[in-house]
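Record passed on underneath.
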Amino acid sequence: MDQQNEKKNYTQKILENKTELIGPTEPKRIAYVTNRDDNTVSVIDTTTNTVVGFPIPVGLSPSGIAIAHTLNGTFAYVANSNSDIVSVINTTTNTVTSNIIVGVGPSAIAIANTKNGIFAYVISSISSSITVINTATNTVIGSPISVGLSPSGIAIANTSNGVFAYITNFSGNTVSVIDTTTNTVIGSPILVGNRPGEITTANTSNGVFAYVINRDSNTVSVIDTTTNTVIGSPIPVGNRPDGITVANTLNGFFVYTTNSNDNNVSIIDIATNTVVGFPIPVGKRPVGIAIANRANGIFAYVINQDDNTVSVIDTTANTVIGSPISVGNNPVGIAIK
């Protein structure tokens, strides 16, 4: 069977069948990790830092994942790059309840909480477009939104002027901005560094800012979302930065970036937009990263792609705690509810 037929048959199968009960989790801080080569999602209880239940089967080559807190419950939305669908996981039962056909090559996903509802914005990297899903009905709304070449990362900015989606264009070295009220691109693309990848936003007392990984520049660019302009000079981090997230700690806001070729994590103090401390050693080829706000502190969970593990960083001491947590093969994305 050739790859195209395998993809078609797998997509049809997963659209026709719902996943069996995998094993419930209690309402704690739970991490969901996409395992690209296993076509599954692993579940980690961050209170014990152990994997719970069995891996959840999803589509082909799951990559990006995001959590939606809706009136009907909390759901994980998974972009399956090689089956052109988004799987929806009910996080109460850890079952797949919906599979939604989107654009070609969905790779990343973000959730926008707007006055009109809660929507999932899905990057289709091959078609250079964004598909919008209404999470109330789990249906695609409107037409795909064209952005720049090879969109890679996406993050939502909740500002005083509205809710906006910021999308990095990997092949264009730019960031596109979508107004979620009209689902149209606004303004001109924002020029950043070489090969922009993941992106995150920070709501601070000084405003809302987008932090952009520039993979080939080994830097992070900062965008002021009020003016949609880059501020300051690019911030040098490690070699081949990949994942990025923001931790709101008692000591302030900090950006954590994974440096995939250095096997470590850099920390940026948002107050000064400078790197602080020393890089934190983790596993091999760190990629995705997410923050868990636990009762006993704030922790960063780092995917080590080549080790098939997750490392845990205590953001108070900025040190790795415990042993790496084993997950599936070729883990890529992580989201925490």
Notes: Confidence is low (pLDDT under 50) at residues 10-28. The chain is about 5% helix and 60% strand. The longest strand covers residues 62-70. Residues 151 and 274 are 27 Å apart (CA to CA).
